[in-house]
Structure formats: C-alpha cells, structure tokens
Specification:
458 residues, alpha+beta, DNA polymerase, domain 1, hpI Integrase, Chain A, 4 domains, three-stranded antiparallel beta sheet, 16 helices, 9 strands, 47% helix, elongated
Length: 458
C-alpha cells in the first residue's frame, strides 16, 4: 500500500507518496511522488494506490488544459516529449558553441530543477500557450531549489526568464522540423523582473576600505578591481606576462586575456569552451577542474591602464613571490600567476570571497560583494572621465553600450590613460600603503638571509 512520508528539507517540509513497483525481472523498487502539501498528497494517494495495484508507474496529472492526445505520428512512432526535444536542442546548441561551459552548467541545472520534473514527460503536441502560461504561473508558487542564504523563497522572475530563454528556441527547432505547428512559448507573459541595484562603495568609502585593509595581497586585489574594473575571474587569472610594469613612474598596462574559472570537465568538452590551461586536480576523480579560459566575449580581450601606485604595489608583490619561490624551491608550483597561494596554486573565487568576507567582518566597512568593486570603479571612472561612456566601456570589456557608441565612436586612448592618472591622484595617493608593503620587504630580506645561511651551512 502506498504511504505518505514527511521529510524535513533545507527548503522546508517536503511531502511524498511512496509506493512499490516491480520491474520486468520482478525486482521491487520504491517510487517517490513529490507533493506540494499534505492535502495534495492525500488527494493523490488513491490514484497512486491504483497505479500500484496495476503495477504501473504513476504519472502525476498535468495542468488542467488538455487537448486530444496524439501519441503517434504518421510513421507510428511515439511522439517526442519535452525532455527529449530540449536535450537534443541543448546538445546541438553546445556543439555549435552557443554556450560556454559555465553557462551550459547553469542552464542544465535550471532544467533539472524546474523543467524536467514538472513537464519533461509531456508530449510536445500536447503543449499549448495556455498550458505554458499555467506552468509559469504555477512555478512562481513553488520554493526555489537553492534559496539564497538559506531563506525559503519562491522561484524568481529571473529563473522564469532563464527557462523561457531555453524553451523558446527549443520549440522553434521543433517548428522548423515540422514536429509542431507553432511555438507555444511565443505569447506567454512572464512577471516583470525587479532589478535590484548592486551595493557598491563610493570613492570615499574605497579610500576608507583601502586604509582599513591589513592584508597586502587583498589590498592589491581590491586596488586592481577598482582601478582596472576587472571581473573576478579576470583578476585571478592575471599572469605576470600580461603586465607591463615600468619602473620610471609611468602608467602600466594590463592585457586581459585569461579568466580563471572552475568548470565541469564534461561540459568543457561538450561546449568547446576555449581553454588556455587546465590546472592539475587536487582531488582524485574530480568532475570539475580549475581552468584558465578565454574571457567572456571578444571585447573582454583588452588592454587596460594601471595607476602608478598599483604598478608599485605589483612590483613589490613580484619581489615577494620571487623570494618565496627561491625559498621553497620545487615545492612552489609556478604557473606565472600574479595572485596565488603560498605554494603557487591559483586562488579560487570561493577562496577570494572568504578572504574578502573575513576582511569585512573585522572592519566597519559597508557590506558589499567583492565583484561590486568593479561597479565602484566604473562609477568613479565615469565621473573622472567626464562621462566618456566609450572609454569606460572599453575598460569594462563590454560588447556594447548603445548603438551610437557601438557604431560611430571609438575609445580615446588619451582619455583612458587620464582615468588611470586621475584615480592615482584622487584615490590611491590618499592611502599609506608603503609601510604595509615594507613589512613584506623585510620578509623578503629575512628569506634571503635564511637562504644564504642555509647555503653556507651546506
């Protein structure tokens, strides 16, 4: 007999109907039917028990609207169901380079969580615009699979939009192949997305934040994010060979050509993501790896100017890294990264987030995400450049701003250089960073003395 089971989940209380089903070999399997509430479980239980008595797998009733079912086409084959259609579309789209590995991973997770369990088994000929509208409206009442900060929230408008961006072209493919007459997602109405403004620091708060930072490596990372408006992965993927660091006090240059990202190995192969380097795995049989990949888009490959103070910080950091490398010898895994762990391995985005959060916890600074420093830098650059949108757009690595800027204007190199000089004058000159880095210099000297003593002892 089927039974109702209650489970305490991270997202709240879950209700299930559990019943038995015997496969073709007579092996007994337990099947679980997910319910939204106890009332729904009690309502569905008689139907589940009827399916159990007939030894068939229970199929949850879909939404109220039904058309006459057409399970066979002219060739007598079973009609394709939504899951099959979408999987074919995703496979082809990835193979054609439509998604890179990170996007593919996120979209596949969305399909697994919100599409396949609910409407994945539905024959596509049964799906109408009204059916899809009901599906989207119903989805808004369901709890999100991975709520933010453990808070139980319903599926967001952003998630619905992401689903629509996958299903609409998939149904277009079905129309093109003659499987259905029209696209059922063409006329559905989605809820309006609320764009929450990302918290960021003002120029004055950036100065305060730099003064409060006692971690030299984090100080340099904060400075570069603000100065060069990088994405986090671009910052962590920066190599020494990407930098031009003049020692005569002039402006430096960073060539952005790498982005550090943790990606699924399977999806890297499926999507043909442009990979520059794969770091050796720490865990055996890991399904993901850290990669240096091509940046987000063509415009992301760019040259950005570095403020003089940031150049000086980088020169100090290079000395320290060379000293550490000489001290630990072969134990240092040299990948040429600017920002790395003490053994040379890359600093992941997760490690950076924890490091920045620790810094926020011990200071009185306003809580922001590390990535928000890129937004803070962009805001300051707009002000300092006299609202030169094209110059700031080029610094950010964005593909477009609007049609005028994209088609008719090009960035002015002089303006972009002036931004770096102005940031140095109005922001970094306010920060007494040298005493902190002098401590690093002393550490370098101590390392060198230990090295010389060790050589004498030998």
């Amino acid at each position: 007999m089927a039974s109702i089971v209650r489970k305490n989940l991270r997202t709240g209380t879950g209700w299930y109907i559990v019943y038995a089903h015997y496969d073709e070999n007579g092996v007994r399997n337990r099947k679980w039917v997910t319910c939204r509430s106890l009332a729904e479980a009690e309502e569905l239980k008689p139907d589940v028990e009827a399916a159990e008595a007939e030894n068939r797998i229970y199929t949850r009733p879909r939404y109220d609207v039904r058309e006459p079912l057409h399970y066979a086409n002219s060739s007598g084959k079973k009609c394709i169901v939504l899951r099959e259609l979408v999987e074919l579309y995703v496979k082809r789209h990835c193979a054609e380079g439509g998604w890179e590995a990170r996007t593919a991973s996120a979209n596949k997770g969305t399909l697994r969580n919100y599409v396949y369990p609910l409407i994945g088994d539905e024959p596509i000929k049964n799906i109408t615009p009204y059916y899809m509208q009901q599906y989207y409206e119903d989805l808004q009442t369901r709890p999100a699979v991975k709520p933010r900060n453990g808070e139980i929230v319903t599926v967001s408008a952003r998630t619905l939009k992401d689903i629509q961006k996958i299903l609409h072209p998939a149904f277009n493919e079905a129309v093109r192949l003659g499987l259905i007459a029209s696209n059922p997602t063409d006329h559905v109405k989605l809820p309006r997305m609320e764009h929450k403004k990302r918290k960021q620091w003002t120029k004055e708060e950036v100065i305060e934040g730099l003064k409060a930072c006692t971690d030299p490596l984090l100080l340099l990372m904060i400075s570069m994010m603000y100065d060069v408006t990088l994405r986090s992965g671009e910052l962590l993927g920066t190599k020494w060979e990407d930098l031009k660091l003049p020692e005569d006090g002039s402006t430096g240059v960073l060539t952005v050509r790498n982005e550090l990202a943790r990606l699924s190995k399977e999806e890297v192969e499926e999507t043909g993501t442009v990979i520059h380097f794969r770091f050796p795995d720490v865990k055996i049989n890991a399904t993901t790896s850290l990669y240096l990949k091509a940046p987000k888009n063509e415009k992301s490959n760019r040259d950005n100017f570095l403020s003089q103070t940031v150049v000086e910080m980088l020169l100090f950091m290079r000395q320290l890294q060379e000293a550490r490398k000489a001290m630990i010898g072969d134990a240092f895994q040299d990948y040429g990264l600017v920002f790395c762990q003490d053994n040379g391995r890359p600093i992941s985005d997760k490690m950076l987030t924890k490091r920045f959060q620790k810094y926020l916890n011990i200071t009185s600074m306003k809580e922001i995400e590390f990535y928000s420093l890129r937004h803070s830098g962009a805001t300051s650059q707009m002000e300092l450049s006299g609202n030169d949108i094209k110059a700031v757009q080029a610094n950010m690595g964005h593909t477009t701003s609007d049609m005028l800027m994209k088609v008719y204007l090009s960035p002015i190199e002089r303006k972009r250089r002036e931004i770096a000089e102005q940031l140095d004058k109005e922001v970094f000159s306010e920060v007494e960073w040298k005493p902190l880095f002098e401590e690093l210099k002393q550490e370098i000297d101590q390392m060198e003395q230990k090295k010389q003593k060790k050589q004498k002892d030998c």
